[in-house]
Every structure is written in C-alpha cells, then in structure tokens.
Automatic annotation (TrEMBL):
Protein name from the UniProt record: Putative secreted protein
Highest taxon of source: Bacteria
Keyword entries, A-Z: Signal
Species: Donghicola eburneus
Signal sequence coordinates: 1-20
Length: 159
C-alpha cells in the first residue's frame, strides 16, 4: 500500500481528476474515462462507493449520447489490479473487470519524460486470449486508477 501511495504522489502531475460523463453519476466516482472512434464511444470506470451501496466498482462502455453496450458492476476484491512497478521508462497501471470468461482490462500509460502524453485503452480477452485491443482517442484519457487500485488492494486483504 505504501508503494501505491508513493506512486500516487509521483503521478500527481500526470493524474487528472476525471469528470463524470454519461455513465458515472458523480465526478468524484470517475477513476478512468476516455473516448474511442473520434468520440463516438466511451468507457468509464467508477468507484461506486460514491453513489451505490457496497464496496464495488463499475465498468461502462457506451455510445456517446446512447445506450450502454457493456456494464459490469462488481466487488472491488474480485478485480485484478496491476499497479505500476516503479521500474522502466514508462509509467502504467491497469484494472481488469471480469464477466464470465471475458476480461476487460482498462489501462493507461505515459513515458517518464516532461510533456509526455497519457495513453490508454481496453484489452478484451476470452479465457486469456486477446480478442481486441482498443486504443483511446488522443487527448481523451483522464485517470485516477492509483486510487482505485489502492481500494482494490485494501478490499482484497480485508475480511
């Protein structure tokens, strides 16, 4: 947990306070958001503690101004959280939501250089085999996954 807190401090300049879009109901609950296909579709990852009962997180993939195409609401302890290891020329984090045999890994990364751009996306798997890699539109990534990853780690060690 100390490593995550340190990572959060180190990433302060690269972490933006994501804003509620069309899926998360409160600004404070948005842990990741970005758009795809020139803004036609979007994904949001939310900490549902801000607007629902239970220690849950949610994943929503949707058409902008339209219907939700995929929604997963699950307890944080069941998420796979991958914090940045602190090594390498890039900084990255990921959280994976599962729905049956499908995994939806939401990730972000950036180079460790001044002025580096945030990148992000979704990797969709079925039984561990990659089905699709979706890359977020340039400039659309807003994230606070370090906060969610810390909450996931706490949920996984708490009874």
């Amino acid at each position: 947990m100390t490593r995550i807190a340190l990572t959060a401090v180190l990433l302060g300049a690269m972490t933006s306070a994501a804003q509620a879009g069309e899926y998360c109901t409160l600004d404070e609950s948005v842990m990741f958001t970005c758009t795809f296909n020139n803004g036609a579709k979007a994904v949001e990852v939310c900490d549902t503690n801000y607007w629902a009962d239970g220690d849950n997180a949610s994943y929503g993939f949707y058409k902008r101004g339209g219907a939700i195409e995929k929604e997963i609401i699950t307890d944080k302890a069941s998420l796979i959280a991958t914090p940045w290891s602190g090594v390498g020329r890039s900084i990255w984090e990921a959280v994976t939501f599962y729905s049956g045999e499908y995994g939806y890994e939401v990730w972000w990364s950036t180079e460790r250089t001044e002025g580096a751009v945030l990148e992000g996306g979704i990797t969709v798997t079925q039984n561990g085999t990659v089905l699709a890699d979706l890359t977020c539109d340039a400039g659309s990534v807003e994230q606070n996954l370090a906060t969610l990853i810390e909450a996931v780690e706490i949920a996984q060690v708490s009874p």
